[in-house]
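hiii so my PI (J.) wants the whole complex modelled not just the main chain, which honestly fair. so below is everything: three entries, each one labled with what it is. i double checked the lines twice but i was tired so who knows lol
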Amino acid sequence: MQNRETRIAWYFLLPLLVALAAVALWPLGRNIYFSFTNAFLDNPTDYSFVGLENFATVIEDPVFWGAVKNTMIFTLVSVTLETLLGLAVALLLHRAFAGRGLVRAAILVPWAMPMVVSAKIWEWMFNDQFGLINKALIWLGFLDKGIAWTADPSLILGTIIFIDVWVTTPFMVLLILAGLQLIPEEIYEAAEVSGVPAWKRLWSITLPLAAPAIGVAVLFRTLDALRMFDLSYVIAANSENAMTMSIYARDQLIGFQDLGVGSAASTWVFLIVGLVAILIVSVLRLDRNTT
Amino acid sequence: MTGPKRYSNQAYRRLRAVKRFGLYAGVAIVLAYMLFPYYWAIISSTKSRASLYSFSLLPSLDFSNYISLFNNPIFMGAIVNSAIVAFSSSLISLIISLLAAYALGRLHFPVSRIILICVLMISVFPQVVVLSGMFEVIGWLDFYNRPAALIFSYLLLILPFTTWVLTSFIRDLPTELEEAALIDGCSRIRILTHVLLPLMGPAIASTGLLAFILAWNEFLFALTFILTDENRTVPVAIGLLTGSSRYEYPFGQIMAASVTVTLPLLILVLIFQRKIVAGLTAGAVKG
Amino acid sequence: MASVTLKEVSKSFGAYDVLRSIDLTIDDGEFVVFVGPSGCGKSTLLRVIAGLVPVSSGDVFIGGEQVTDVPASKRGVAFVFQTYALYPHMNVARNISFALETARMARNEIRQRLTKVADMLKIRHLLDRKPKQLSGGQRQRVAIGRALVSQPQLFLFDEPLSNLDADLRMEMRFEIAKLHAEISTTMIYVTHDQTEAMTLADRIVILNHGRIEQIGSPRELYDRPVNRFVAGFLGSPRMNFAPVSFDVSSMSLLGPKGFAFEGRLVGDAQPATLGLRPEALRIVKAQIPRSIQGIFERVEDLGYEQIAYVRLTEDLVWTVRSADPLPDHAAGQPVGLAWQTKDLYLFDDAGMRVDVLAATEPFAIEQS
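here's the output for the full assembly
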């Protein structure tokens, strides 16, 4: 009977396994395979093995390191800001007030839009001449004349981070709120009755108990930020000041048609993301053991 | 009265009123931050070319941007393409992952945990990593520059997500219900279709909607695997909408396009709000 | 109608053994109750018989036929679940007839059977309702109806009354007993409630840590428990225990506070524990002969009976149950406890009951 159940389970799983093999494992394997060849996209059947040459080409390219640096800064700053902002908003929306359900739904708006649309809306608001933000800042007296937020090389990464924070904070809020809702109300009531001040309730009760939910949210967001492509691609086009690892790899592959180097770049991205993932997961585990 | 100092009842009442006001002020700020950009997009989309630069916060109800957008065959074609791609890939993913979720969530099965972890790992790895291999597979299948290329490649995006979410939904259904169905003589597939599926209606609707949104919003694959304008999907079409120079950027039209492609989604999200939140957090909180 | 036989049935989940080599025969038409503390494996054993949980080893027979690998639906069993497990999206009628529908029975016959069952359980007026619109007791009836309609040869109940409040529980208990009397199909009933076990069962199976401790009629189990676990499990308040040792030279049993009595034991068993049910004890004046001494702590008056707590030593408090009002005692007052020899139970080191051939009533000795 046990065997029969296992067999049925495999039947049910078969479509998933086949599909994932076709769209994930096989392409991933081929990507790594191509990394060791000098294939070109226009004729991918004609190639020979070149060993680690492509990997060397990539790490000797300063543009790649620029992309890595941009991605790391982007990930670190935006995830930090999103976490803090997300936590603040989640704590606010966790309180009881009229219309709470509606507000929680409304904050999903930025998240549900295509990234391209968000990028375009903010590009319009950040427009140097006709943008609302420059206009408002000039009106308030902070600026004399409009700033080219999306064109100035020193500002562009900051602008992208600003937009990303707007887009992904709702996701953070949702995950943290779900974590907060798992904390039983009685714990707070007990703390309140025994006179524990609000800041201490936050620091000693809410944060430790919500930490697993926050940890998971940070992990997801970090891995998502590391592969960021669309926002930077739409806002910064091919500015090297905002080029991410994903854009770099795709440029090599599609832009320069260089299947070998492009695949090697992708493989580097894969290794870097994997490393960060392992790092975060082990840090989270460590926390769990000490508390 | 001994113990720490206590204020008068009236003082506490005032304090509470202040806190209350602070709470609502905070909520108002959050709402403004989250919603104003979209509001501004709507306003801008209804302004004529001349008044676009006037900064009025009220709509001017000029629909010329929408009219020219709806007369743009490439944009309308992109909407149709997006709808076909997103609908097909979500439907295929739902069917495949529902079957898998039943096996993973319910049947006693030794490697289910390992498979779930693999699924989760696939959902977080960067799409660019499979780009070259996917390019090759799409070439073999002769899908290049066709919507089928996207329907196929989007399975990578959607399947792990739907599998994970549906598994956790199925786990939440009471086991006894299924035991009752087994005693009543149902086969596994009949249990899935006649007992679990009817109960999962809202869960499947919201998971499907989230899957649809994922596919509808995707950019990288859509940009890479589609070559010609008439096969493009909406995000790429909007991304590539440009004027002849930077100063002739058709912002009014872009805003109209942005509003058009997001409004239906937003309405659906608001309707399914509760279930969507459950779906998004299902895997994360318990996993 | 069928008998059930289990041969060396074991079940483990990973490294955890839930059932350890269970041997059991249930006769045709019998009402058997599985009872035991939570985690003892009683629910798993029921699911093994139903075919919902595969055995790790051993064999299951129903009606003399080997069914170890037969799926649940082909075993001719019906199952009533603790949470009722009614399909929330189907109305009562469809809930009851779903199994028949699945088996592709003719519509006419389904209707006939449905009507018969609905009349029997007096739920005809509920047939169009959804489970959500029913009260707890009504849901319970529907769950039983769903079991009845397939005309099983074996009924399995998994704590069916535990989600009901006290009044309803009594009513449904009575209904289930009546049902068994009417259709006399074999029934197996799992519960942790000893009242249900005592009142419903022809025979009770007491389980602990995945093993059968004892099988027997309620009376048998109550009067002649094979071991200390069974003795302590049945009865409320539970049996009073005290450690004792047997002194060969004086042929007497020595208790913890220096109480002792002469005794003759069968064989060479060494009693380690003494047991007395609360209703076997009487409170008497302190220091009178043939009693042991304690301190009166408090009394709980339940109206129909009284329960008194008497402290014998630092960490040993005995309960005394009495249907008649107890004389007034102040807390802290010294009292004596007396009993009749026939009510005395003795258990050896391993907890097995030791037969008492003869024993005198207790007498106080000097503490050494």
